[in-house]
Design a protein that fits this description.
It contains 15 helices and 8 strands. With 365 residues, it is α/β, with parallel strands linked by helices. It folds into 2 domains: 124 residues, no CATH class; 230 residues, no CATH class. Helix 1 runs antiparallel to helix 6, helix 1 packs parallel to helix 7 and helix 6 runs parallel beside helix 8.
């Protein structure tokens, strides 16, 4: 059976892998457009975050194409966010307009919850099939994350930017086709090797900017990611350490891993900046911002959806990090009334400030 879903950037490829492991198929979601997002804005309440409205618009586009079997993945906790009620919301919205709509939700905060959800959607699913399907999902997710982070970082170094875009397309197609961990790992590994083998620009990156807050919205909204890539093409190193995989780890309440990448370690890194019981992506944003400051990046770019509560909570913490550690911060809120020309002006002003600071530091030496 064919299903459809919303897309956080390219994460639909991982969801299609999960469904193929279960003997089903996923239709490719349409690319987000201005008209799609406008459709979502008009159909939803004002308090829903901007990326949530984009999601609804994309789903309505697919319903208009005649798709009826909707499936999505979500935790059951604070990180459910925009997708927690997507199925019931569409059900009520489409009761008269889209007869025959069926939806299923996969995922959960524990393995038991996840297995129960999958058995509700696909009766008779064994635990081993469930585990294999999610293993494929997470492995593909990790490969996509790695590919996107490597490509963004290499854009400031490579002479031929079009070659990176071509490599991205080729690697995504391989990740989509392959189902075995060795094959997926090889696709990501070879992507890194080919990126490093590209001819390098003659000059080193002029600036290093760390990106926080854009755990999903960066890759989901093409107009925003185009500007990020444009900065990298101008010789500015941009580092993005979050992504889909990081969010899913945040939602996993069972993981008790220790070490610098564990949830508790991230909380500890930013405990002097956040409230006592942080639970959402504000932990990632704050912890990565501290790391960027410690590693002497030139600035921090904070990208978030208007109405996103974890990022609203994170903003005062990021401002305090900026003051305490003397690292410039630009916070960009993406919402219904976003003015693209104003966004471009703010980004350019931020770059000018960072370049002036870098020149001043160079003269001091």
């Amino acid at each position: 059976m064919n299903y459809f879903t919303f897309s956080w950037g390219n994460n639909w490829i991982a969801i299609r892998g999960l469904l193929r492991a279960l003997g089903h198929e996923l239709d490719e979601p349409p690319v987000l457009s201005d008209s799609t997002i406008r459709k979502g804005i008009e159909a939803t309440a004002p308090f829903l975050c901007y990326s949530g409205k984009a999601v609804v618009g994309q789903l309505l586009d697919q319903l208009d194409l005649g798709r009826r079997n909707f499936l999505y993945l979500s935790s059951y906790g604070s990180e459910s966010c925009r997708c927690s009620g997507t199925g019931p919301f569409l059900d009520s919205l489409a009761r008269d307009r889209y007869p025959g709509l069926r939806w299923a939700r996969l995922g959960g905060n524990t393995g038991k919850e996840s297995l129960e959800a999958m058995r509700t959607a696909f009766p008779g699913t064994t635990k081993s099939r469930h585990d294999w399907a999610f293993f494929v999902y997470f492995f593909k997710m990790g490969c996509i994350d790695s590919m996107e982070r490597m490509s963004l970082a290499q854009r400031s170094l490579a002479r031929d930017k079009a070659a990176i875009a071509k490599l991205d397309r080729q690697t995504l197609a391989k990740i989509d086709r392959r189902m075995s961990p060795p094959g997926l790992w090889l696709a990501a590994f070879m992507h890194g090797l080919r990126l490093n083998a590209l001819p390098k620009a003659r000059s080193a990156p002029r600036l290093r900017i760390g990106i926080v807050g854009g755990e999903h919205i960066l890759s989901e909204l093409d107009f925003l990611m185009a500007r990020i890539r444009g900065l990298a093409d101008r010789g500015i190193h941009l580092e993005w350490r979050s992504g889909f995989f990081a969010i899913n780890r945040m939602a996993d309440k069972e993981h008790g891993k220790k070490g610098k990448g564990s949830l508790e370690a991230l909380k500890k890194r930013c405990q002097s900046y956040l409230h006592e019981s942080p639970e959402g992506t504000e932990i990632l944003s704050c912890a990565h911002a501290v790391s960027f400051a410690d590693e002497r990046f030139d600035g921090i770019l904070h990208v978030h959806a208007f109405g996103c509560m974890p990022q609203t909570v994170a903003l005062p913490a990021l401002q305090k990090i900026s003051r305490d550690r003397k690292i410039p911060l630009l916070s960009v809120s993406v919402g219904d009334r976003l003015d693209i020309s104003s966004l471009d002006t703010r980004i350019e002003a931020f770059i000018d400030i960072l370049l002036a600071r870098a020149t001043e530091k160079g003269n001091d030496k």
